């Protein structure tokens, strides 16, 4: 298995079909906080997360859904979009709030990354809590070319997404016990992410807080519980998986 890492959706090369050397799997990461919230929401029993880059498209789709089973989650600049049911905190998606509901979601960067790799045959989302579960899923599916895509911040590199990319790659290397499944980094960004993981693996929360988006969240108010949740490693086996374009489910 060859794993490439691209630190934002803007860095992703043009997608080619699998038969022409394109990826057969993509892993989207937005540690702070979209992909952590997505995993927590599905763990809490949400029916699905439907992701949108733009709020207009989200509103159109949500308007067409059964109102009693619909929640709108919108985040811009780290804050909840006015009038939406939810922002982007993994703490808010409790079973009482999201159970049985479809969450129509748009965030500043994370949902843009999902959009960028929507056509890839196997699309999953990763965060630190589910990184080993994601790695096992890739191995079980026998995929050969994996693109791990970070979300960054408006086109810029983010430390926390690269940390989690390294965490997933490291887990894949550890889980690939069969001699038939060799895991290797296919670009320098993947190698750098792996090195970052080696540096911070025992103190992920410090890394998240030091990162520029961590500092942004701290500037917006107390996010201690969000940091603790997003920094936890291997606490979840949920693997959010795209089941139809833009729709993630506990598959
Ligand atoms: O950038 C994003 O997509 C969000 O995850 C940012 S925030 O953590 O909700 O502020």
3D structure, described in words:
By secondary structure, the chain is of the alpha/beta class. The chain has a single domain, classed as ComB-like (putative 2-phosphosulfolactate phosphatase), CATH 3.90.1560. The chain is built from 10 helices and 11 strands. The chain has helices spanning 34-43, 55-63, 95-98, 110-116, 131-140, 159-175, 188-200, 204-210, 212-220, 224-231, and strands at 2-6, 25-29, 48-51, 70-76, 79-80, 102-106, 122-126, 145-149, 184-185, 240-244, 247-250. A 6-stranded mixed sheet has the order 5-4-6-3-11-10. Strands 7-2-8-1-9 form a 5-stranded parallel sheet, sandwiched between helices. Helix 6 (159-175) packs across helix 7. Residues 30, 32-34, 75, 78, 88, 107-110, 151 line the site of (2R)-3-sulfolactic acid. (2R)-3-sulfolactic acid is lined by residues 30, 32-34, 75, 78, 88, 107-110, 151.
